[in-house]
Amino acid sequence: MVAFDGPAHGRSEGKTANVIHFDLALKKLFAELDQQPEAVITHSFGGAATLYSIMNGLKVKRLINIASPTIADEIIRTYLRTINGSWKSGQYFKEYILKTYKRPFEEFAALHFIRHLPYPLPLLLIHDEDDRDVIIEHAEELVKLYPATLVRTKDLGHSRILKDDFVIETCLQFVASPTV
What we know:
The protein has 180 residues and is α/β, with parallel strands linked by helices. 43% of the residues lie in helices and 11% in strands. It has seven helices and four strands, in the order H-E-H-E-H-H-H-E-H-E-H. Strands 1-2-3-4 form a four-stranded parallel beta sheet, sandwiched between helices. Helix 1 packs across helix 2.
């Protein structure tokens, strides 16, 4: 088992991170492993970032995304609520992304990545109905586009979900299943 904090997350260095930074970190980590992992288990932004890496060539056998954002405009709205910002600020952000990366922000969201996966991917989504940081609509929209399995939890929110026995057991069963 290997665990790591993505760039500018947890105990990792850095103050900013995006899917491109995560992609580089994941590809470096995978290159250093002796064998391909049986599964990748992610939380929040790590789920979107891992889908980005898969879309760009990272080979993953199975993926579990826990409380992962997928909807571009909802990601912006959530951030704006956090900072008490206006939608005008969100529009400026979208313009900045387009100017900087020559691609719209929507192309940096999981709903875009899932449409461009290079191979079929067994995908389990676990999301809490009471998650205020990443609302459950993110997972619901993704399963409309891709044959993922969605497991809903209640009263766990965005972070406690990671320590829940049912969630841990569900992840272990998904990883151990011969065919998903």
